[in-house]
Protein: Aminotransferase class I/classII large domain-containing protein
Organism: Triparma verrucosa
Amino acid sequence: MAASNPLDALSKPTVWHEFSPLANASNAVNLGQGFPNWDPAPFVVTSMVDSVQTPGTSTNQYCRPNCHLPLANALADEYNGRPSWSHLNVDPMTNVMSSLGCTQVMYCAFRALLQPGDEVVLLEPAFDIYGSQVILMGGVPKFVSLKTDLTAPPTSNDVFTFDFDALEASISEKTRVLVLNTPHNPTGKMFSREELERISSIVSNYPNLVVFSDEVYEHIVFDPEGSPHISFATLPNMFERTLTMSSAGKTFSTTGWKVGWAIGPDDLIKKMTDLQQWVNFSSPSVTQDTIARCLKRAREPYEEFPTFYDWLAADYKKRRGVLEAALTSAGISPISPQGGFFICADTSRLTFPDSVYEEESLSAPSPMPRDWALARYMTHTNPKVAVIPPSPFYSPENVDQAKNYVRFAFCKTDDLLEEAQLRLATIDPTGDLEKK
Ligand code: PMP
């Protein structure tokens, strides 16, 4: 009998296929989708023009399969310039690989490392692409849930905590990869040094285990003193087993350019490069060249801030404040994120008609989970604000953990956030969404 194609299990509509059309059809304010609805900063746009137009450079031709050299140099400078990375001495020739967004970087890494049957430990809620990529490779995702305590103080770091015993129990000789994500999508949790140290002591027992650290929201952080961004690779002895992954999409509001990279030890970077050269040979030179320019410019003063990164974090913090205030006054308690551009909010007070559970849904699990039904009602009826249910970020056994919260994106312009604020303000104080 022919082996089944793992793609078959994945060829079905997802939450994204369902909620974007529903939002459009309902004229909802769309706080579902996780990309900025504004143009990139002027220096980002002019960097692209300069990259295309600079005569005599190779930006319009193929680049090396590992990384366009100017980007590799800019990334090595960037990481070596961070105090926490300075002891690692990232070599642009051997420690940097770039591909089409963090997503394809991760694909190359899984493809290069996994053999059918290898296990990959994912912390859920987990960005949905991780588990699907593992399945595509014939790997086996092993899910460990963050503990969720909605009665904890209202920050994502307090509400979502590690169950280290469960993490330890999930790792074995069969585990090839552990995926970390900080700042974390969807919760906004930032992993603390203590948490990362405990993880490092667990993984140290498994010489073949590689850690992928997805850090795409690394520059969108709200309390750099109390809850700083820490790269797992910078912990003692962890660089040699870690692929630090990031991308330009969130930092420069260029999610469509798909420039992502991995920083890691020679052997792992070489494997990923060997793979890329047989898939797409290299990534587009011009977007990489542009991001190389942007990485340099981002360290300079911007809009009265010492750097572009400081401005970016402050701008997002302001947007977080607007949405948190709107949610609080609507009786939907925000779980304040320490990083990233999503707010998860406690919806346990809200009620809505049972008939929503019977609606035809493109992609909901059966039976439809509460968060899914509520997200549909909030999108199509009241308050007509589109949100994303977090259950797709959980494995089927654990979707119940998602039932009392939904995810709002605040990477949205002032007019959209203000309209959302007005609509959320119409929610009846009892929390009954049927009352207008
Ligand atoms: N990782 C996380 C945690 C994300 O939220 C996203 C985008 N939503 C990505 C990776 C994808 O990054 P890219 O667009 O660079 O492929």
